[in-house]
Amino acid sequence: MYPANQIASAFIEKAIKDKAYLTHMKLQKLIYIANGIHLALNEGPLINEPVETWDYGPVIHSVYQNYKMFGSTRISVNPFENLVYRSKLSETAKKAIDDAWVVGKDVDGIQLSNWTHKEDSPWTTAKDQKLAVIPNNEMKNYFMKFLGKK
User: Fold this and answer.
1) Whole-number Å distance between alpha carbons of 41 and 36
2) Which of 41, 46, 119, 145 could anchor a disulfide with 35, C-beta 3.0 to 4.6 Å?
3) What does the pLDDT look like over 30-51, one tens digit per residue?
4) Dihedral angle of Cα 56, 131, 44, 141, to the nearest 10 degrees
5) What angle do CA 111, 48, 72 make, to 5 degrees?
6) CB–CB of 96/35 below 8 Å?
7) How many domains does the chain have?
8) Tens digits of residue pLDDT in 89-113
9) Distances from the Cα of 7 to the Cαs of 46, 98, 106, 122, 150, in angstroms?
10) Residue 81's CB: how many other CB atoms inside 10 A?
């Protein structure tokens, strides 16, 4: 497991390299997707922090605190580039990040947020149950179906 902000830095580096439009909202959803993919394909989560059930979708609190200054504007610099240890990420972590990037690179944050709000999504299930945190087993099961593994 990795700090969510290390995963955030990896996505920011990808966005800068690919000249892709990345907002704070999109960053949150990409980390959520990468975590879900990692849960579905491996034995545990990608990040060492809970995914919280906020009103507008899944949020990782530390990432929120570090990137809220961007609001809805583009993140075009990596304010925490010293956290980029991509070479130190496991192959399974890199794959989850790469797969999430393929899913979300050309989609905006609103579209990703809408996807997280689908009726059978882990966020919707947790929200309906009034849970503050989305359980990892809910994410794992959902992403196994998403990836055709179940």
Assistant:
1) 9
2) 46
3) 999 999 999 999 989 999 999 9
4) -80
5) 30
6) yes
7) 1
8) 999 999 999 999 999 999 999 999 9
9) 9, 11, 19, 21, 26
10) 11
C-alpha 23/C-alpha 110 separation (Å) is 10
Q: Which residues contact 149 (CB under 8 A, 6 or more apart)?
A: 40, 41
Tokens for 31, please give them.
């980390």
CA 95: distance to chain centroid? 13
Question: What is the total residue count of the chain?
Answer: 150
Q: 14-20 — which CB contacts under 8 Å span 24+ positions?
A: 14/97, 14/101, 14/105, 15/75, 16/76, 16/77, 16/78, 18/105, 20/105, 20/106
Nearest to 7 by CA among 48, 44, 43: 48
Structure tokens at 70: 């961007």
Closest listed residue to residue 112, CA positions, set 19, 26, 38, 24: 26
Contact (CB, 8 A) for 142 and 122: yes
Phi, psi dihedrals of residue 133, rounded to the nearest 5°: -130, 140
- Boundaries of domain holding 119: 4-146
